[in-house]
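Predict the holo structure. Ligand: pyridoxal-5'-phosphate.
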Amino acid sequence: MFDVEKIRKDFPILSRKIHGKPLVYLDSAATSQKPLSVIEATDKYYREYNANVHRGIYAISEEATAAYEGAREKVRVFINAQSVEEIIFTRNATESINLVRFTWGKQFIGKGDVILISEMEHHSNIVPWQLLAKEVGAELLYIPINTETGRLDQNAYKKLLGRKPKLVGIVHMSNALGTLNPVQEVVRLAHEAGAVVIVDGCQSVPHMPVDVRDLDADFFAFSGHKMLGPSGIGVLYGKKRVLETMEPFLGGGDMIKEVTKEGAIWNDLPYKFEAGTPNVAGAIGLGAAIDYLKDVGMKNIWAHEQEMAKYTLKKLQAISSVLIIGPREAVDRGAVISFALQGAHPHDMASIFDDAGISIRAGHLCAQPALAVHGVDAVARASFYLYNTKEEADRFLKTVQKVKKIFGS
Ligand SMILES: Cc1ncc(COP(=O)(O)O)c(C=O)c1O
């Protein structure tokens, strides 16, 4: 049984007061809060078995290696990858995407080739491709958003596939619009057109069951800190047969089998893409986060967030002069709600929310093209997670009313 009050007790930060009021944290799309079990797992590593991995022939190094590799197996099971060779630990999703840019991208994308991404990508799935396109002389094209519905324009996508892109990049769930994209279909069509696909799963993996084999993407990137894990740990999933065609990303220790003065032999997957001492504590913390999420159940978390989205969207839309950016109905979307209020700058709004103890995000949300096509350059965003309640949504909605009054919106 999903019990939000019980869940809340596991998150020490949620008992904090801000400006004398109980903290309402509505910025989990930026980073999530951490349960005690995650904090304790990293603490235990540093207190009891801190050592480098894959190297020491002594007890605590073996323990650290077992915990680090154990976390990799937890990630594999969590997203249903075929093998741990397909799970590469990185710093975050941004690094995961850039890894693909610097390896597969540089090897397989050349002059005149087309890279196709959507208008609703986070900057971290735009800028790497802009840089690569510039470097190799490729062309970067965008799948448009239907701004009426907040959804991808599927017909335009099908037409653009006629340009035979080498790579399609698509966000699973938009951090700016909340839109859940039909990724399985996007991937299927891209493959039919001969493209390789990278999916940005930053906002999907923390919130819903994800099966990378079902989605069939070639690459899938996400960050640990948005899914109850520590910051500084991310994941790149890649299909083994694709990873095998790729040259290493960074050079150094751990990614080699043997080094001579003349050259080196690369290590096996996934180590070939993990140069240097990894974030051992981060991986262990991410493993603990996955244990926590599985314990609650991803289906339960998704159902709770759907409920929160439905409840909040309905009441928010009823407030005149509120403009919601993204799908307005709680279908095929997450509990990430971006909005503008006539006459009120989002930064001023966020300050008023903060005074009320409510943390929301304001600004361009690292998705400037997605906002630009909607004719705005900044919005306010409330994003909900497993620990948020309807009472918190009510406090949020009450504060929207207050903002409206202050600015005469
Ligand atoms: C959809 C999406 N992609 C990518 C990122 C980048 O994540 P990170 O900063 O952890 O690399 C974010 C973070 O906000 C995101 O929401």
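The longest helix spans residues 59-79. The chain has a mean pLDDT of 97.
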